[in-house]
Amino acid sequence: MRRAIVFATAEAAEEAFYDAMQRGDAQGMMALWADDDDVACVHPNGPRLVGIDAIRSAFEHIFARGGVGVRLRDVRVHQGAVIAVHNLIEQVAVAGPGGGSQLIDCTATNVYVKTANGWRIVLHHASPVSEGGAAAEGSAGSAVLH
User: Fold this and answer.
1) Angle at Cα 82 formed by Cα 78 and Cα 87, nearest 5°?
2) In the predicted model, what is the mean pLDDT of the chain?
3) How many Å apart are CA 53 and CA 63, to the nearest integer?
4) In the chain, what are the domain boundaries?
5) What is the DSSP string of 52-103?
6) CA distances from 91 to 20, 81, 127, 133 (A)
7) How do the residues of the chain divide into helix, strand and coil, expressed in percent and rounded to 5?
8) Is 37 helix (H, G, I), strand (E, B) or coil?
9) How far is the C-alpha of 29 from the C-alpha of 23, rounded, in Å?
10) How far apart are CA 16 and CA 94, in angstroms?
C-alpha cells in the first residue's frame, strides 16, 4: 500500500497534479484528491464528473494512452488559510493533422483545501479557449483533451 504524501502547500499539490498528468500516473493523480463525495472535475470538452469514482475512471481512461503533455503559464493564485484557488492557462499537446502535434490553450481552475492530510484538490475545471480568450467552438473537435 502506498503511503499518502502530505503536501505542505497548495503549490506543491498542484506541482504533483501536473507531474502525475505528464507521467500518466492514475494512482499518483488520485492520491492528490480530497476524500470528499463532492469533489468535481471537468476536462476540456468533457462532462462534469462528481465523486472520486467518476474522476478516477476518467483519468484511468485518459492515461490508458499515456501521459498528457501540458505546460502551464499565467498562473494566478488566490489563497486563504484553508482554501486556495489557482487559475491558469494549460498548453495541452494534442495530436494534430498529419501525425504532428499542436498546442491547445485551456483555461483551468484548480481549487485546493487544507485537510488534516495536507493540501488536496477538490476541483479541476479546464476549458479550451480561442486566441481571443473566448471559449473555442470545436477548436479541438469534441475530444476530451485531458
Assistant:
1) 25
2) 88
3) 15
4) 10-133
5) HHHHHHHHHHHHTT----EEEEEEEEEE-SSEEEEEEEEEEEEE-GGG-EEE
6) 16, 29, 11, 13
7) 25, 45, 35
8) coil
9) 10
10) 21
Q: Name the residue with cell 479541476.
A: 124
Please state which CATH class domain 10-133 belongs to: alpha beta
What are the pLDDT digits (tens) for 42-63? Answer: 999 999 999 999 999 999 999 9
* Set of cell numbers at residue 107: 483555461
- Using DSSP's 3-state secondary structure scheme, residue 46 falls into coil
Q: Are the CB atoms for 100 and 111 separated by under 8 Å?
A: no
Q: Which of 39-48, 80-89, 95-104 has the lowest mean pLDDT?
A: 95-104
Cβ within 8 Å of residue 74, ≥6 positions away: 88, 89
Q: What's this model's pTM, rounded to 2 decimal places?
A: 0.84
